[in-house]
Fold this sequence. Notes:
There is one protein chain. The protein is an all-alpha fold. It is built from five helices and no strands. The chain has one domain. The N terminus is likely disordered.
Amino acid sequence: MKLLFCSKTVNTLSIFVTSTFLLSSCKHKTNFNELSEVRYSKDIAPIISSNCSAAGCHGTIEYEKLSLVTYEDLMKGGVSAGSPEKSKLYRTLTSYGDDIMPKKPFNELTERQIQLIYVWIGQGAKNN
């Protein structure tokens, strides 16, 4: 039981440190090369497919505003590889009010999911 508590505490501390580091990027340039590599197929595609490309959202090729079915669609949708702050995807995910995505009844992305997208874009938004 004590080991489980310690593990959860270390996990929480790790997420806090990562969040602080990424959120402080407004003041300091983030060195994406020092962070673990975020992979599109393993980390990003599951976030997009389970939260963004559902039926009625960005899940069809014919979606009039922006389809997010494929990697190519995602890149066309406003990902500026290497620059999360310039990427429409990241700005939309971190916006407030009427612009926030995903819209209700879907759940907002978690901080961890947004951090993964931020790092992935910062590392060049590779199709890996």
